[in-house]
Amino acid sequence: KSVFFSAAYLMLVFGIQHFMKQRRGYQLRTPLILWSFSLSLFSAIGAVRIWKQMALILSTKGLKQSVCSQSFYVHPISKLWIYLFVLSKLLEPGDTMFIVLRKKKLIFLNWYHHSTTLIVTWYGYKDMVAGIGWPAALNFSIHAITYLYYTVRAAGFQVPRSIAMAITSSQVLQMLIYVIMNILIIFWMEDKVCHTTWTIVFLTSVLYVSFLVLFCNYFFHTYLRSTQKSKRE
After folding, report:
1. Is residue 20 part of a domain?
2. Within 13 Å, how many C-alpha atoms sit on residue 67's CB side?
3. 22 found inside a domain
4. pLDDT-derived band at 108, boundaries 50, 70, 90
5. Can you give the residue range of the structural domain that contains 120?
6. Largest Cα span, the chain
7. CA–CA distances in Å: residue 149 to residues 92, 142, 143, 155
8. How many domains does the chain have?
């Protein structure tokens, strides 16, 4: 199903983009504000819920269990928010719809990120594999800030460039942590406590490394290269 939804998303995105070629972009300011603020609030609540469980595991059982534990799937509070986290990957591609409908620049990172995350997250959730806690906690946290930033921007307020740089830096750090987490899972996967499969390890490894490269590339071209150009000018 996740592959179907991902394929449908891509067809819809590029279909709308083609449809909008000869048309003026929509403003959609109010819907975008509401959309971004709703996702920011949702992510903030999710972050609090998941970090509460994460802190408990870290303080009582240590790092290994925080990575390997399946309790995130079954704990009365975290299981709901892990489920909502997975479902949110079906909603977040709505970001791309706003981009194409407003005729803003659609970069590869955007649609690649949404389409692949949807598939891998759902696949991992189905098998209740290790390594769901950290991605959920970090993703919720960063999205809470990122979507708040989008809300403020959509409302027409100017945001310091340093804030945007900090957000992208946090995304780079997030992917680096994911890569490190996957390396740990590879070392620990023979342990019965750390349940996963080679398929999901391969998929997530490809995903996290590619995200890390793409976010680093985005940071360089958006902030460092543009700064160098402005200095030369």
Report:
1. no
2. 19
3. no
4. very high
5. 2-6+29-232
6. 59
7. 15, 11, 9, 10
8. 1
Q: Is the distance from CB of 89 to CB of 121 less than 8 angstroms? A: yes
CB 170 within 8 A of CB 212: no
Q: Is 12 inside any structural domain? A: no
Place of tokens 């890390």: 212
Distance, in Å, from the CA atom of 175 to the CA atom of 142, rounded to the nearest integer, reads 11
Helix ranges (H only) for the chain are 2-19, 29-60, 63-68, 71-74, 78-91, 94-101, 108-127, 133-154, 161-188, 198-219, 225-232
pLDDT reading at 230 higher than 70: no
Specify whether the backbone of 131 is left (phi greater than 0), alpha (psi in -120 to 50) or beta: left
> Is 14 a member of any domain?
no
pLDDT in tens, 50-106: 999 999 999 999 999 999 999 999 988 899 999 999 999 999 999 999 999 999 999
Tokens in use for 83?
């489920």
Closest to 71 measured CA to CA, from 53, 59, 55: 53
**Rg of the Cα trace of the chain?**
19
- Is pLDDT at 117 greater than 80 in this prediction? yes
Would you state the structure tokens that stand for residue 122, as one six-digit string? 């759902």
Closest to 99 (Cα-Cα) out of 85, 113, 87: 113
